[in-house]
Structures are given as structure tokens and as C-alpha cells.
Amino acid sequence: MVEPKPEEIVDAMRLYLGVKDILEREQANAITVDCLGGFRRGDLPAYPCVAWSKLNDQGYYGVCEADLHSTMTQLLVTSFCGRPGFVSDPVFDTSRNEILHAHCVSATSLLGIGAPSLPYAIRSHMEDNKGVSMQVMVPVGDTVTVGKFAGPKKFLLSTGEVAGNVDSRRGCRTQFRTKVADARKMLVNFTGGLHRVVFYGDYAEPIEAMGRLMGFRVVHEI
Description:
It is a single chain. 31% of the residues lie in helices and 30% in strands. The mean pLDDT is 96. It has helices spanning 6-26, 35-41, 49-57, 68-81, 183-188, 204-214; strands at 30-32, 61-63, 86-93, 98-103, 120-125, 130-136, 143-149, 154-165, 174-179, 196-200, 217-220. It is of the alpha+beta class. It has one domain (6-220): L-fucose Isomerase, Chain A, domain 3, CATH 3.20.14.
């Protein structure tokens, strides 16, 4: 535990228990809210980063920033691969042909729902140094699938190899680098909003098969 005070951790866990109660009452398995605006306006008693992390570890879907497209991405992919998604703000490093994936919410069981937790630190939310979030250290050398359901007719897709964790004062708490085929091409052609969802494993072929069955087109970003 680094920045958070004990009372902030209590608030984060109370929010988690409240959200879990709402999901059970509504017979739902996914939730996304305006977390940044909600916390700053005082609508939320805490950032939901810890709540989303714990929900994703258990096979529910807690997704950042009221992002319905990323929520649909996780519903589609996690449902068959059994691994939580990591909603990412991608940053392109064309000099190294890499993409940095960063966010303040990450499941700790990225290798499988119910799997042992990866190493993590309990940190503050990076942008304002308030509340509680998770800095998760991810495995290096694995292939990851990066995607986004960009509407009923299109799914954006790419793959990469995790090259290393990053601990930086800029960006978000959980950060890792991925080697890709052509970072410059992806940057130039980038569409569909900021977020992408990262899944450990290579699921390009199953997603293409899903597209044929469900009627959406898979667009390879690289």
C-alpha cells in the first residue's frame, strides 16, 4: 500500500459491496458509470477502481467511464475465453514499434477468472492522487488480443506481445508495453474512440468466427 489512507480503502470497499448488492438485486452482471465526473461532483463516495477490479476477478464486468462499447467488448470476449479484459488508454511509441497500455483499473486475475492474483500495489488514482486504485504487474512475453466492439457492425482487432511493465508518474497506475507489427500504421488509422480492451491470449480466430455468426465485420487495425 503506497498513497491511500485506511479510510479511503474502507470507502472503496464499501462502494464495492454496494455495487455488488445492486447487481444481485437487478440480476445483472455488468456495470459502467461516469466514474471521473461522478467522483469529482461528489456523486460517488469513492473511485470504483477497486470495485471494478474485484468484480472482473469474479467474472462480472466492471467497466470504466460509462463506456458501453468496452462493456460490450468484455461481454463478448470474456464470455468465451474466461479471462477478464483490461480497458486501456493506448499510447503509441513509433520509435520502438510499441503500444503502451495504461489505466487505473485492472483485474488481478488477468490469466483467468478465479486464477491466483498477479502481484499488485494499492495506489491512489493517478490523475488527482485521490482514492484507491490497483497497480497490477502483468506477465511479460505473452501474446495479447486487443479489441473494441465499435458498434453492431464492426469489431476492431489487433494482437501484440507484452514487452514489460512500466512504472511512471504520468498516465495511469497499471501500465505495460506491447510489441506490435506496425505501431505507426495503427496510429495513423486509429478510429473508434480512445479505449481498447486487452485480453491475455490470442483470440483473433474465435473473434472472426464470432463476427461471421453474429453479423459484424472484424477490422484488423494492424
